[in-house]
Design brief:
The complex is a heterotrimer of chains A (404), B (128) and C (363). Chain A has 404 residues and is of the alpha/beta class. Helices cover 39% and strands 13% of the residues of chain A. In chain A, the strands form three sheets. Chain A has a seven-stranded mixed β-sheet, sandwiched between helices. Chain A is globular, with a radius of gyration of 22 Å. About 1% of the residues of chain A have low confidence. Helix content of chain B is 44%, strand content 20%. Chain B contains five helices and three strands. In chain B, helix 1 crosses helix 2 and helix 2 crosses helix 5. The radius of gyration of chain B is 14 Å and the shape is globular. Chain B starts with a helix and ends with a helix. In chain C, strand 5, helix 6 and strand 6 form a beta-alpha-beta unit. In chain C, helix 2 packs parallel to helix 8, helix 5 packs parallel to helix 6 and helix 9 packs parallel to helix 14. The two termini of chain C are 31 Å apart. Classes of the chains: A alpha/beta (404), B alpha+beta (128), C alpha/beta (363). Chains in contact: A-B, A-C. At the A-C interface, strand 1, helix 3, helix 4, helix 5 and helix 8 of A face helix 1, helix 2, helix 3, helix 4 and helix 8 of C.
């Protein structure tokens, strides 16, 4: 019998919602116009659809539609926000503050700027994954142009104190950018209340199509940036290139649905997560949650199953799709830099799984998944020399391991 | 990543999982790898007075390929003399299991584990 | 509605739609995005392989469109000399940092003598970016000759071939250039995806950094449906090129023969078969566009990116056309769905508008 695989990796990507697909498909075929063509019906109709989508995106952020720029995805949005602001203001501001647990594309953009002479402060995080606001305050200097702190971490799901960060940034006159790819549609985001100046979001993390995202860029006070992609001057000159009407429509619809269902989904996923986690806790000793439990989106757990190696465990629970660490780096053998930044020791980081719940996860899914994981962890522990030694009371740290 | 059928078989039905009493004279124990690197293998051999490995057990913390490599070598070394077992090369293990390049280190660890177990046995029995 | 604005956007080809729908069905699989993820990546690699085979190339990087592909190339030559033609698309003209412009001759083709001198005026090699087919006039540029000259001086050559794909025979290998931009929606693929074809030994610094996808030259999650739609459209466009060009050439000749009063720009040069840039003497383009729209004919004036602004065409200006004449030029562009009836409707509309406006002028 072929059993249906259970997908528990919603932080990596989400399936496209059928309602989203339905909304966007006509724009591939019937209404195929170029939204920048101003001289005929095809162009106008496409433009109208794009503008409606822009308004839908703006609504979920409490922003003005004019402040929303469409991009090819959160990766591009993050690159544009960070490099764009840095380059535009570089005459007076050459310092950027970010955090050690950011997504790779933020860290990579920052490293690239460092090579170009910018200074970057990588704030550490506390063991629960949150940044220390005092450290942020202390790090800001007169040369600081941008603070980029992600809203929700992709590996451990913790929610950074956006409102407090925004307040500090506004007080000090520094722009605040947040990578909200994992936050939009899951927790309320209000660019006004939170004093966010730039915000990146992704479509395929919120049940929209791949290949599209957005960047919110504040107009009052105005944030300016140097474009990465120049040309026809679309998107207020910040991002040239013909917009894909169907993809924009898909993202808009995805935002609309996410906004409408946020509260009920929040409650439902919190219940599912608690049910799942308490089942594991009841059956398995020595499992540890990475990152704060309270300040966390409901759809994420990141658990270390001590003395069981993560990749080996994933192989054992092949009916369940989960990930060890971030999907972008999970092909490498390095343990997650996010977990290491929390102070999780390498041996423990190797035993961690990221488990993500989402729109199509059912109670049956989490029950089945919990039982499979419990069974496999127990089996692998019986096979683990480390588990055996720990049972015998041997301090694993007292052993001189031959690191290779 | 796609695992070979042989890796899956050893992972799902590992041979010779368990432990031998490390205090016994005729048991050699090899413990290689490091938790911080994500794989640790414990390989134990029981050697009879003719110098032939009559039993082997393993426990492994690691990925499927690491588990499969150690399971495989316990099968291979049983019935072999210490000299024969010590001659097993990691390339043979990797080839047998069709390990991809990123998993070659698992076979190297298994080779190390055999040698470490033999060394331990020989050190114990040097006086005798 | 008669749609004659193919250079702005080409209606999606049915084969592209089919390929995309299959991929979308996968993407929406709620139970197994993981397995699906692997399958989707494999599908992209299959499309990559097919496209490389059809284009005679070894490496292709998928991007969000032609504009991004151009930006990626130009951002890598910020500290080296850059030569561009005066008739490039805005994404090249504005993407280059302090470029040196090479003019075109009156017929709309690059002036190779000026190019040769320009190449000699720099003490270090840089980049030449020359489009293969101009989007406003359809004039085919002497790219092979220009590439020969540039390579002799150690320069790299990039071409934006977005408007050439499916319009003339196209082989990356035969062109001999180092980098070539393609855009899906200009050949009947979906909007939102494009590509940079490049020689295997070239490594570009990424414009978009992150997970290190696309050989480390372009990070970000690609849309498999778009890439598959792109590949299907490219395959069909290339396969049908000879037949399609012949068909559209007849339409082009029919229109030009029917409208002797019209000024046809670039007529003296080799042109693609599907574009006509034509002036209606004394009648401003915006007035023409409005009249055409009322008659149910969709066309445009110049490039779509700037058509909303109704500014003067930099392409016609570069060809030495006076501002007065340039403001009276419109662009018609045809494609796979264009029928003879569309052509007849256009000719009829053009004649009516011309007559009506001329009468007004006279009265």
């Amino acid at each position: 019998m072929v059993t249906r695989p259970i997908y528990l990796d919603y932080q990596s990507t989400t399936p496209c919602d059928p309602r989203v697909l339905e909304a966007m498909l006509p724009y591939f075929t019937i209404d195929f116009g170029n939204p920048h063509s101003r001289s005929h019906f095809y162009g106008w109709q496409a433009e109208e659809a794009v503008e409606q989508a822009r308004a839908q995106v703006a609504r979920i952020l409490n922003a003005d539609p004019k402040e929303v720029i469409f991009t090819s995805g959160a990766t591009e949005s993050n690159n544009l926000a960070i490099k764009g602001v840095a380059h535009f203001y570089k005459a007076h501001k050459d310092h950027i503050i970010t955090c050690m647990t950011e997504h790779k594309c933020v860290l990579d953009s920052c490293r690239h700027l460092e090579q170009g002479g910018f200074k970057v402060t990588y704030l550490p995080v506390r063991p629960n994954g949150l940044i220390d606001l005092n450290k942020l305050r202390e790090a800001i200097t007169e040369r600081t142009g941008l603070v980029s702190i992600m809203a929700v971490n992709n590996e451990i799901g913790i929610i950074q104190p956006l409102e407090e960060i925004g307040k500090i940034c506004r007080e000090k006159g520094v722009f605040f950018h947040t990578d909200a790819a994992q936050a939009v549609g899951k927790i309320p985001i209000d660019v006004e209340a939170m004093n966010i100046d730039l915000l990146s979001l992704s479509s395929h993390k919120i049940y929209g199509p791949k290949g599209v995202g957005a960047l919110y860029v504040r107009r009052k006070p105005r944030v300016r940036l140097t474009a990465l992609i120049n040309g026809g001057g679309q998107e207020r000159g910040m991002r040239s290139g013909t917009l894909s009407t169907p993809l924009c429509v898909g993202l808009g619809k995805a935002c609309e649905i996410a906004g409408e269902e946020m509260l009920s989904e929040y409650k439902r996923l919190t219940a599912l997560r608690n049910r799942f986690y308490s089942t594991l806790q009841a059956e398995l000793e020595e499992i540890y949650l990475n990152g704060d439990l309270e300040k966390r989106i409901p759809g994420n757990l990141n658990i270390s199953f001590s003395h069981v190696e993560g990749e080996g465990l994933i192989m054992g629970i092949k009916e369940i799709a989960v990930s060890s660490g971030s999907a972008c780096t999970s092909a490498s053998l390095e343990p997650s830099y996010v977990l290491r930044a929390l102070g999780v020791e390498e041996e423990m980081a190797h035993t961690s799984l990221r488990i993500g719940f989402g729109r199509f996860t059912t109670e049956e899914d989490v029950d089945t998944a919990a039982q499979k994981i419990i069974k496999e962890v127990k089996r692998l522990r019986e096979m683990s020399p480390l588990w055996e030694m720990a049972r015998q009371g041997i301090d694993l740290k007292s052993i001189e391991w031959a690191e290779h | 990543m796609a695992y070979s059928q042989k890796v899956i078989d050893h992972y799902e039905n590992p041979r010779n999982v368990g432990s031998l009493d490390p205090k016994e004279e005729n048991v050699g124990t090899g413990l290689v790898g490091a938790p911080a690197c994500g794989d640790v293998m414990k390989l134990q051999i029981k050697v009879n007075d003719k110098g032939v490995i009559e039993d082997a057990k393993f426990k492994t913390f690691g990925c499927g390929s690491a588990i499969a490599s150690s399971s495989l070598v316990t099968e291979w070394i049983k019935g072999k003399t210490l000299e024969e077992a010590g001659a097993i090369k990691n390339t043979e293990i990797a080839q047998h299991l069709s390990l991809p390049p990123v998993k070659i280190h698992c076979s190297m660890l298994a080779e190390d584990a055999i040698r470490a177990a033999i060394r331990d046995y020989k050190e114990k029995n040097r006086a005798g | 509605m008669v749609y004659l604005d193919y250079n702005a956007s080409v209606p999606l080809r049915p084969c592209a739609k089919e390929a995309m729908m299959a991929a979308f069905a996968y993407e929406g699989n709620a139970s197994s995005p993981h397995k699906v993820g692997r399958k989707l990546r494999a599908m992209i690699d299959g499309a990559r392989k097919n496209m490389l085979g059809r284009l005679g190339a070894k490496r292709i990087i998928f991007t969000s469109g032609g504009t991004e592909a151009n930006a990626l190339v130009l951002s890598n030559f910020g500290d080296r000399p850059v030569l561009v033609s005066t008739i490039e698309h805005d994404s090249v003209l504005k993407g280059a940092v302090a470029p040196t412009y090479v003019p075109v001759k009156e017929d709309g083709r690059l002036d190779l003598e000026v190019l040769e001198k320009a190449l000699l005026s720099f003490d270090k090699p840089g980049l030449l970016s020359l489009m293969l087919v101009n989007n406003e006039t359809g004039v085919i540029q002497p790219l092979q000759e220009a590439t020969f000259l540039a390579h002799a001086k150690g320069w790299k050559v990039h071409t934006d071939a977005s408007q050439a794909l499916g319009r003339i025979p196209l082989s990356f290998e035969d062109l001999g250039v180092d980098m070539m931009t393609l855009s899906a929606h200009k050949c009947g693929g979906p909007v939102g995806v494009g590509a940079l074809v490049l020689k295997e030994d070239l490594h570009l610094q990424p414009l978009i950094r992150g997970g290190g996808q696309e050989y480390g030259m372009r990070s970000g999650t690609l849309s498999t449906p778009l890439v598959l739609g792109f590949e299907a459209a490219v395959s069909e466009a290339l396969q049908e090129e000879t037949h399609a060009s012949k068909r559209l050439r007849e339409f082009q000749q029919k229109i030009e023969a029917a409208l002797p009063q019209a000024i046809i720009y670039g007529k003296g040069a080799p042109r693609v078969s599907h574009v006509i840039c034509l002036g209606m003497p004394g009648i401003p383009a915006d007035l023409q566009l409005m009249s055409f729209d009322l008659k149910g004919v969709a066309i445009s004036a110049g490039a779509a990116c700037s058509s909303g602004k109704m500014k003067d065409s930099h392409v016609l200006e570069a060809m030495g056309v006076s501002p007065q004449d340039s403001r009276c030029a419109i662009r018609l562009s045809m494609g796979w769905k264009t029928t003879e009836n569309d052509v007849i409707a256009f000719i009829q509309a053009w004649k009516e508008i011309c007559e009506k406006q001329s009468l007004k002028e006279a009265s």
